[in-house]
Design a protein that fits this description.
Helix content: 25-40%
Strand content: 15-25%
Distance between the termini: 16 Å
Length: 448
């Protein structure tokens, strides 16, 4: 598969990193020679310095034979232009990163007619993730499959957890009445993600990811030793497009929302557009202002300004004032790995979310959903099983399933089913699998 990526920023780099595990024929175009040199030194990709809107340059790297053209520069207009030109020159599929989320809902303009097959808005995706994190507030990472029939939930284990010092097998025996699968463990001081086996022991500080059917969600709280938090009052710092979209989403779901915006003109515009949100013009770093706005009465604090450090520090302040749930937007992906050690419950990176969303268009096989878990360099896939797929030939226990992957669950006839060894996967099943990068190829062969 030949893939051309325009833009070597965080989204482009993360996509290239994911593709480097697969021996795809990948080209990356950017003006920045330093970024391209870094890519050349770290990843198996072909780089080209220049303007991705140049017809000459696109022809030089064989745009006419490209299976996928991904435009993820920092400019929405440039991404539009690249997609239109690339499609006209023969690219089979185009994906453009956009900043204006209204394009996603606008039925009046047929963007495909102009050469844009798919569009993604990092801001829209980030706002949706924030809402999901608030709905499952005792967890710091959450992904829903098939409208929540199955959920992947991540949380750090504290001394209050009932499974500390138990093996996975012992914990499963102790809570045999609860349906869940532990799919991954990120351990402090260990860079490699642990794919848990029966003899793996849970430790204090482990970031553990569970795959849970919807009917067992409420039963998972005693296992992790945390109460279920009801979020009602929310304070948002920053009137960015993510802040505005988040406020709009939350108000629709009957949350009580306050939004603090430093810029007076912007605050006035937001106050007019967000009828059910209390918009405050002020500096969210001002402790006196936060106290005046009753930060101690807030259930959640969400910092989405354009400054990562401001977001992190303000969340730490909110936490010190007793706020139950804090979420910080960060641009620097290095911060994601240290979120637990600095005391922030949830860090999100809109570019990482966007890259994972784009990546599902690249996958071979019948992948219908894909999610990237924070802190973990791996993926959760949702496959739809097609006729002739190898996974339908034998029960799960007899499949040559990669050791670096684990079944999360199966959705059959819109019902959640736990993946036991004796279960036979059928055509039409939707299967959730957690997989480390080195096992992706083997996994795809099973579902092809």
């Amino acid at each position: 598969m030949k893939i051309i990526i325009a833009g070597a920023g965080d989204v482009g780099f993360h996509l290239a990193k994911l593709l480097s595990y697969e021996s795809q024929d990948t080209y990356i175009i950017d003006f920045d020679g330093v970024k391209l040199e870094y890519l050349n030194n770290h990843l198996d990709v072909i780089t080209k310095k220049g303007d991705a809107t140049s017809i000459k340059l696109l022809k030089e790297i064989g745009i006419e034979s490209a299976d996928l053209l991904i435009a993820v520069t920092d400019s929405q207009n440039t991404n539009f232009t690249i997609s239109v030109i690339g499609k006209s020159l023969g690219a089979k599929k185009t994906i453009a990163r956009i900043d204006n989320p209204e394009f996603l809902d606008n039925c009046e303009v047929d963007f495909k007619k102009f050469g844009l097959d798919f569009m993604i808005s990092p801001q829209e995706l980030a706002a949706n993730e924030i809402k999901m994190l608030l709905n499952q507030s005792s967890f710091n990472d959450t992904v829903a499959f098939e409208s929540g029939l199955f959920n992947v939930m991540g949380t750090p284990l504290t001394y209050k957890s009932q499974i500390i010092d138990l093996t996975v097998k012992e914990a499963k025996e102790k809570y045999s009445n609860i349906d869940y699968v532990t799919i991954a463990i990120k351990r402090q001081g260990i860079s490699q993600t642990i794919i848990p086996r029966g003899d793996t022991t849970y430790q204090i500080g482990d970031q553990v990811y569970f795959c849970v059917p919807n009917y067992s969600l409420k039963d998972l709280y005693p296992i992790i030793g945390k109460p279920r938090i009801n979020i009602k009052n929310v304070m948002i710092l920053g009137g960015s497009s993510i802040g505005e979209k988040t406020a709009r989403n939350l108000c629709r779901s009957n949350f009580k929302v306050k939004l603090i915006e430093k810029n007076k003109e912007k605050a006035e515009v937001l106050a007019e557009e967000l009828n059910n949100t209390l918009v405050i013009n002020g500096d969210g770093r001002d402790l006196e202002l936060l106290e005046e706005e009753n930060i101690r009465e807030m259930d959640a604090f969400i910092a989405v300004t354009g400054n990562s450090e401001t977001n992190i520090m303000s969340c730490l302040v909110a936490k010190s004032k007793g706020v139950k749930k804090t979420i910080a937007l960060v641009e620097n992906m290095d911060y994601i790995d240290i979120s637990q050690t600095i005391g922030i419950q949830s860090l999100i990176n809109k570019k990482l979310i966007a890259a994972s969303n784009i990546f599902k268009h690249i996958r071979e096989g019948e992948i219908i959903a894909l999610a990237n878990l924070h802190n973990i360099d791996a993926e959760v896939f949702e496959f739809e099983v097609q006729e002739g797929a190898k996974v339908t030939k034998h029960p799960i226990k007899e499949l040559k399933f990669p050791r670096e992957a684990i079944f999360g669950g199966i959705i059959r006839d819109e019902k959640a089913i736990m993946a036991s060894g004796n279960l036979q996967i059928k055509i039409g099943d939707k299967v959730i699998v957690f997989c480390l990068p080195e096992a992706i190829k083997s996994l795809e062969k099973l579902f092809n």
